[in-house]
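Much of what follows relies on a compact textual record of a protein's fold. A record is reproduced here so that you can trace the correspondence yourselves:

. . .
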Amino acid sequence: MSHYEKYRRQTVRLKGYDYGSDGAYFITICSYNRRCIFGTIKNEIMHLSELGKSIEAEWLKTATIREYITLGKFTVMPNHIHGIIFIHKHSKEPLQLVSEVIFSKIQLTGFKNSFGPQKENLGSVIRGFKSAVTTRERKRGNTAKIWQPKFHEHIIRNQEELLRIENYISMNVKKWNEDKFSQ
């Protein structure tokens, strides 16, 4: 097995954490090779390409086709997207985040990461989203690769962290010139 194949098989997820459990997650998904194909930023305003519009439409559909999902702040950038996803399979509304440094929802015992059929968890939501965008684009004649193979996630542990991340997402377009991948 090559180094690349070994890397692709390694998970970057938190060992022992059930990504199907109720919680809040900050997601970043990058374009293939971080190409600026989702749109452009001019005068601190994001102008979506047709692909960017497809991404935005499919993201917004995520919560309507999955009743256990509520979407938080979201932005499409030229070469990546940021979004907050709340999973709430055990209630009709998202979990209320505590205002503490320690988030009591994270339980690293009694759950073992497993491979096999994955459904109603963060990975399946992102796979479905990426697949829907790709399918939509193929129908439009776009055959280029769209996505990096993986995505970055961060478990949001408390209300203060949620507010900080929401602010980061809101300010992302204004700080685009500072992004090391903006060129």
Remarks:
- The chain has a mean pLDDT of 81.
- The two ends are 34 Å apart (CA to CA).
- The chain has four helices and six strands.
- Helices lie at 3-9, 50-65, 122-139, 159-171.
